[in-house]
Design brief:
By secondary structure, the protein is an alpha/beta fold. It contains eleven helices and 13 strands. The mean pLDDT is 97.
Length: 326
């Protein structure tokens, strides 16, 4: 585990996965079909993780491809606005397009419409991954969506091999999105393979259950993955908190209840908060709790990238919150 923790403490992350545009209805509570105003910002799970990390004092470089059009340039501009390194992003011409998410700030009957037709982020190649200077980073992070199609799937496994050769730990957010995959069977096989190649695996009960072939088998799957020496597995259970599996231990942690205005963005913020907190010297259990606090902060505000907290905002939230559930 020491190599994993040391890599995270190096605080320089290469992140594989997509950027996209988020459009969210305004004001809070209005349905998308009833809105006449939408706010646009950066979206996409990996871009959100990058933004969350940078806001918390880490260095993050997104490794992806973007479309050669106004939306691709919008996403590049927003990444730079948030301080994310874009030097490992390739611009791709033709008819490939950025992801677009159109959603609303409401919990009841929440709607998130995802446009992923001809997704440009799937066009990352093995050559792109070989061009990354792995010596510039201390750890790599991947969201599971990159494995849903070729050439991105093979490219990211290549990047895992490159990272391993460079001595970097691999951090994996399962991030299962059924709409991106050709079939559940392919997804279960490929995501399980990615998990076996990773040093830190983060997912929710449904995602681990999916990998195991049934939600009732999810925790057993997480425990099985955690049997590999040096690996950490974090099994998230929504309102029931999380179980961190490491060195034969089960560390149970709660959540920080808030009045949520939307459900999305929590997982990306959790990952950023967890890693930045380990990098800042917090113990693993405390880092998980800080990740949980980041998730609560994000769901209590509109948008995703813009809602990611800074270190000061996180510390202020923790100082003013009565504490986590047990």
């Amino acid at each position: 585990m020491s190599a994993l923790i040391d890599g995270i403490k190096g605080n320089r992350f290469a992140v594989f996965g997509r950027a996209g545009m988020d459009m969210f209805a305004d004001p809070i509570g209005v349905k998308s079909e009833d809105a006449d105003t939408f706010h646009a910002d950066l979206g996409g799970s990996s871009a959100n993780i990058c933004t969350g990390l940078v806001k918390l004092g880490s260095q993050a470089s997104l490794v992806t491809s973007v479309s050669d059009d106004a939306i691709g340039r919008f996403c590049l501009n927003r990444l730079r606005h948030y301080g994310v390194d874009t030097s490992n992003i390739r611009v791709v011409g033709g008819e490939y397009r950025m992801s677009l998410a159109v959603y609303e700030s409401r919990i009841e009957n929440f709607q998130n419409v995802i446009y992923r037709n001809g997704a440009v982020d799937f066009q990352v190649t093995e050559e792109d991954m070989d061009k990354v200077d792995y010596s510039a980073f201390s750890a790599v992070i991947s969201a599971g969506t990159v494995f849903a199609a070729e050439p991105s799937r093979s490219a990211t496994f290549r990047a895992f091999d490159n990272a391993r050769a460079a001595g970097l730990p691999v951090i994996f957010d399962i991030d299962y999105r059924p709409y991106s995959w050709p079939s559940p069977e392919v997804a279960a096989e490929v995501l399980s393979r990615a998990g076996e190649a990773s040093d830190l695996i983060v997912g929710n009960d449904e995602e681990f259950g999916f990998m195991a072939g049934g939600i009732e088998k999810g925790f057993a799957k997480a425990k099985e993955l955690a049997e590999t020496p040096g690996r950490i597995v974090i099994y998230k259970m929504g309102e029931q908190g999380a179980v961190t599996l490491v060195d034969g231990q089960e560390i149970r942690t709660g959540i920080y209840p808030v009045t949520a205005v939307k459900p999305n963005g929590a997982g990306d913020s959790f990952m950023a908060g967890l890693l930045a907190s380990v990098a800042a010297g917090h113990a693993l259990k405390d880092a998980v709790m800080r990740g949980s606090a980041c998730a609560s902060i994000v769901v209590s505000q509109p948008g995703c990238a813009q809602a990611m907290p800074t270190t000061q905002q996180l510390d202020t939230f923790l100082a003013g919150h009565p504490g986590p559930t047990t």
